[in-house]
Design goal:
The protein is an all-alpha fold. It contains eleven helices and no strands. It has helices at residues 2-36, 39-47, 60-70, 82-95, 105-114, 121-137, 140-148, 160-168, 177-184, 190-193, 199-216. Helix 3 (60-70) packs parallel to helix 9 (177-184), helix 3 (60-70) packs across helix 11 (199-216) and helix 5 (105-114) packs across helix 6 (121-137). It is globular and about 65 Å long. The protein starts with a helix and ends in an 8-residue tail after the last helix. Residues 88-100 have low confidence and may be disordered.
């Protein structure tokens, strides 16, 4: 019994050291990224892009759909959501497949702006530090606005304006409830849910979006 306890204690110590090393490496990656490209500069570049769309020119239904399906505790956390991460892990284990990534909207934005091609464990840590900084510097509306202008919607559309015009032939503010909930589901897996590639799968994903909105209490505010 003593041998087992010693082994478990040693194992815990090793895991603790490994976690500390990983966190330090992630923080260093974050620090290096923010030093080379200050957040204010990166956001300024994003807002200067063609077809950048402001928060006021996007239906509130769309933002409700995005929050419900991507990060339902978005308005409660400060960039990193341990509760949401644990829920995602639980749901993935229960379903025996990767259904939820666990990243907050702020983390996804950080990845898209700073670490788009980095899939290392240290990137995940750096992404968390970057998300925390973003939420200190900007309010929730800003984060949502940046997010929908920086994510990929499939079929070569890299912002909400291009996706709305490309898929529906209309500007974002003109989107209906059906179009908002359909579009909100695509960024989860753009190559899979692209309306030009798999419209039926996109509709299946839309059902998940609407179910999430119902669970969050958003759906009762709209008629569809």
């Amino acid at each position: 019994m003593k041998t087992i306890k010693r082994f478990l204690g040693l194992l815990f110590f090793i895991l603790l050291i490994a976690a500390a090393v990983l966190i330090k490496a992630g923080y260093d990656k974050y620090s290096d990224a923010i030093e080379k490209s200050p957040l204010e500069s990166v956001i300024s570049d994003l807002k200067s892009k063609n077809n950048y769309t402001s928060y006021e020119d996007i239906p509130s239904i769309y933002f409700d759909a995005v929050v419900a399906v991507e990060d339902r505790r978005f308005y409660k956390h400060n960039g990193f959501d341990i509760i949401g991460s644990m829920r995602a892990i639980y749901n993935d284990i229960r379903a025996k497949e990767l259904l939820e990534g666990g990243s907050t909207i702020s983390q996804q934005l950080a990845k898209n702006l700073y670490f788009p091609a980095d899939n290392t464990p240290t990137r995940k840590i750096a992404e968390i530090f970057m998300a925390l900084k973003m939420e200190k510097e900007y309010d929730k509306k800003d984060i949502l606005e940046f997010y929908v202008n920086a994510i990929y919607y499939g079929s070569g559309y890299y912002c909400i304006y291009d996706a709305s015009v490309g898929y529906f032939g209309k500007e974002p503010y003109e989107m209906s409830f059906d179009e908002c909930t359909l579009l909100a589901g695509i960024p989860n897996a753009p190559s899979v849910y692209s309306l030009d590639v798999n419209p039926e799968l996109a509709r299946q994903r839309q059902k998940k979006v609407i179910e999430s909105m119902e669970e969050c209490g958003y759906i009762e505010d709209y008629q569809y």
